[in-house]
Design a protein that fits this description.
327 residues, 3 domains, Dna Ligase, domain 1, 11 helices, two-stranded antiparallel ribbon, 41% helix, mainly alpha, lyase
Length: 327
């Protein structure tokens, strides 16, 4: 009898060690995997599904722990984002509390990095400034278009997204970048993609009509070819409003504004600004890639109708400026 006891103790210790091992996380990688827990799923089905997705090590261990912890009958249905870097007790705790609720936010074409940061923080998705200050070098290897970028401006694809309250900033920015990689990146040419994206970002802010956008694209390309300043008013607004069109209190441009010292000032400096001034949509990107040739050298937007007014000569353009803008 006494000889059996040590073996029982040893077997118990081994069993406990194995049980504790199967409670450990599957991986150290902080990735998340979506899983839907339907209302009709029992604890055994949930355990099997989690093991199948490699979110937990053992469905049996999950069952035992959930039963003895009193959680087996309080696991809540819903859509979850679970990580194999979480332990089985943590997974059970998440399922007991229920899924985090997400919200949908639409970002229109032409929003800027600061606009997006403001809208996300206003909705409680991230803390103010965290998107603006996110170190993009930490994820540049996953997104080839970011390798020489100083900012994610231009690469945050405008669309409707769903976010959880108090999300990780890395998860938020990756949603935008994944959408850009899928919907915009395949359209852009190899070594010249940044220039085309900068042009698209200006067209997005300047011209609302698709057919006019291609004409304006032709004008901008023509000016670049002859070394003529682009004189894009939206770049002045970008400077004046410190990169935020949504919250800018006084976006209207005065004559003195075109003298401000900035590399983004396309009145003072010929060529393209150093980076995009907005996050353009597909149509503006297409316009930058498909410029239409015309006799026009100048254009402006009617502030009332938003119609683009074109001019061939500077004299004609100055007359239009006086007529439509009072300048």
């Amino acid at each position: 009898m006494y000889r059996v006891i040590p073996w029982l103790i040893f077997a118990g210790c081994v069993s406990l060690a194995v049980f504790l091992f199967f409670l450990l996380p599957v991986s150290r990688q902080p990735e998340v995997r979506p899983i839907e827990i339907s209302s009709g799923m029992g604890v055994r089905m949930i355990a099997d599904r989690l093991e199948e997705l490699k979110i937990i090590r053992s469905s049996g261990t999950f069952l035992i722990f959930s039963v003895f912890s009193g959680s087996a009958h309080i696991l809540k249905p819903g859509n979850y984002q679970l990580s194999p870097a979480s332990s089985t007790p943590e997974i059970i705790s998440f399922l007991s509390r229920g899924p985090k609720k997400d919200i949908a936010i639409t970002f229109p074409e032409g929003v800027t990095l600061r606009d997006i940061d403001f809208l996300l923080s206003l909705a409680g998705v991230i803390a103010p400034g965290t998107l603006i200050n996110f170190p993009i070098t930490s994820i540049a290897l996953s997104y080839p278009f970011l390798r020489d970028a100083q900012s994610p401006e231009g690469f945050l694809f405008p669309d409707t997204y769903r976010f959880f309250i108090n999300s990780q900033t890395s998860e938020v920015i990756e949603k935008f970048l994944d959408a850009f990689k899928k919907k915009a990146w395949p359209m852009l040419p190899g070594t010249d993609f940044k220039n085309k994206l900068i042009i698209a970002s200006m067209i997005e802010k300047e011209v609302p009509e698709p057919k006019d956008r291609r004409i304006v694209s032709g004008i901008l390309h023509k000016r670049l070819n002859v070394g003529m300043p682009l004189q894009v008013d939206a770049t002045i607004t970008y400077i004046k409003c410190q990169g935020s069109f949504v919250t800018c209190a006084a976006p209207k441009i005065a004559r003195r504004d075109i003298s401000v010292q900035s590399r983004y000032n396309t009145y003072l400096y010929p060529g393209l600004p150093p980076g995009p001034i907005s996050n353009p949509g597909v149509d503006a990107i297409k316009a930058s890639l498909q410029p239409v040739s015309s006799d026009y050298w100048f254009y402006l937007s009617d502030p009332i109708t938003k119609r683009t007014v074109f001019s061939v000569t500077l004299e004609e353009h100055n007359d239009n400026r006086a007529k439509y803008l009072g300048l």
